[in-house]
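Is this the right way to post structure tokens for a design question? Let me know if I should format differently. Anyway, here goes:
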């Protein structure tokens, strides 16, 4: 066996990577999912935009609500015409005529039969809450969506009615309806300069990117960790293993296979991410070109992102990719250790439970905001605890997104990278040692105490 433990790792890496990316399953899944994202998303956005535009055109041809016949069956007096005074006059519910009716609900229904611009607004109080019911007359051309929109408007503005029922003065009602805005600023060290205000797009990215990155990394480890562990376990049972171990050191074998698995996974994911970004942004442009007057919220939101300055740091993107790659390799090295401990599929299921448990616990640690009494950013539910950005198993889930949007602390970034490199080296060496000790072992999974005894015996030889 060669003295240098890393000698031959490059050959193992090249051979394994070639085998992985030339496999039919890898090629078919990469092309199929990439094409689905790149072509399917634009077609989906186009279809949604066209359908929503047709629905709006059909709805606009329907009759509009102009008159509201009010039947209030609750205690207290109220002037429902005041609803028009507390909404934007340009809104479609701002210029309605409200007519109070002393008739019963059944009699009022007879009055709106055949009317194309009048609805019945019935107000009751069955329990401890008010119930607002909007009734459209029989054979009326008023659409259900317009009636539903009006009901939502009345529900959101009903405090105007309850204030009148409480016999508040107009001045008191006006005072209670005065809007209140809030703001939070941070003073600099000299207490003279305040933090610059962030744009709505920056706030949106500060929320979406960490969450999306967290889910992406979680799925990456789940999808590829299992296959790497299974590959290591199956290779132990190969008849060629004796020849391989005489030519290549176990550390070189583990390192080459680990880096090859990580490279194949990252290449595949980069292709899928490129297709996803191209599908979403290209699809929005395509949908707007095909349906210029679309009111679809998804298309318009993506279009606003395209037209705005994206709050992305290019140096942070490069460092974030480094952290992402190191963290991914760390989790794969843990799956290699899982495969090295197992000698059959039943054992692999047990050892993978530890690997999965570490992943799940790390995931929930990242999602638990305000850990250790650290003040958290209200714009995200991710924990703001600094130690989670250095601890290797959680830093991979938090640091890439913060580096991408330029909000990562330099000291934490350096500590994160150093901790990841040391952890990867430690777990690769540990996996190689266990692999070497148990390569011909076919018993039950050894306990930590038994592993330690095997390691001591191996050192004496």
């Amino acid at each position: 066996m060669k003295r240098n433990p890393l000698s031959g790792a490059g050959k193992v890496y090249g051979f394994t990577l070639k085998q992985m990316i030339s496999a039919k399953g890898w090629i078919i899944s990469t092309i199929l999912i990439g094409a689905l994202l790149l072509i399917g998303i634009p077609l989906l956005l186009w279809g949604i935009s066209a359908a929503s535009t047709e629905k709006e055109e059909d709805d606009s041809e329907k009759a509009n609500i102009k008159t509201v016949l009010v039947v209030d069956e609750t205690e207290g007096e109220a002037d429902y015409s005041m609803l028009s005074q507390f909404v934007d006059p340009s809104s479609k519910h701002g210029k309605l005529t409200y007519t109070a009716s002393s008739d019963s609900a059944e009699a009022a229904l007879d009055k709106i039969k055949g009317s194309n611009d009048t609805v019945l607004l019935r107000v009751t109080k069955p329990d401890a809450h008010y119930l607002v019911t909007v009734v459209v007359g029989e054979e009326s051309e008023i659409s259900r969506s317009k009636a539903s929109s009006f009901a939502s408007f009345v529900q959101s503005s009903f405090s105007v009615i309850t204030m009148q029922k409480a016999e508040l003065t107009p001045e008191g009602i006006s005072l209670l309806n005065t809007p209140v805005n809030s703001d939070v600023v941070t003073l600099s060290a000299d207490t003279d300069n305040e933090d610059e205000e962030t744009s709505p797009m920056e706030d949106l990215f500060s929320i979406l990117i960490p969450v999306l990155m967290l889910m992406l990394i979680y799925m990456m480890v789940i999808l590829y960790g299992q296959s790497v562990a299974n590959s290591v376990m199956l290779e132990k049972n190969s008849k060629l293993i004796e020849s391989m171990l005489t030519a290549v050191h176990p550390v070189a074998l583990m390192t080459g296979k680990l880096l090859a698995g990580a490279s194949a996974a990252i290449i595949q994911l980069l292709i899928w991410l490129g297709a996803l970004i191209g599908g979403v942004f290209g699809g929005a442009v395509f949908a707007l070109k095909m349906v210029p007057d679309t009111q679809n919220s998804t298309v318009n939101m993506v279009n606003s992102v395209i037209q705005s300055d994206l709050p992305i740091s290019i140096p942070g993107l490069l460092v974030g990719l480094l952290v992402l790659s190191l963290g991914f390799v760390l989790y794969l090295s843990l799956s290699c250790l899982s495969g090295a401990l197992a000698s059959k599929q039943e054992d692999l299921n047990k050892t993978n439970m530890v690997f999965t448990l570490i992943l799940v616990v790390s995931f929930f640690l990242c999602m638990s905001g305000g850990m250790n009494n650290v003040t958290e950013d209200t714009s995200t539910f991710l924990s703001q605890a600094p130690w989670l950005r250095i601890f290797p198993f959680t830093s991979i889930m938090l640091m890439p997104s913060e580096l991408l949007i330029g909000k990562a602390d330099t000291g934490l970034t350096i500590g994160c990278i150093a901790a990841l490199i040391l952890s990867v080296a430690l777990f690769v060496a540990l996996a190689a040692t266990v692999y070497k000790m148990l390569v011909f072992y076919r018993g039950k999974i050894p306990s930590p105490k038994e592993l330690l005894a095997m390691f001591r015996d191996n050192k004496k030889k």
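Format looks fine. Someone answered above. Worth noting: The radius of gyration is 32 Å. Residues 67-173 form a domain with the D-Maltodextrin-Binding Protein; domain 2 fold (CATH 3.40.190).
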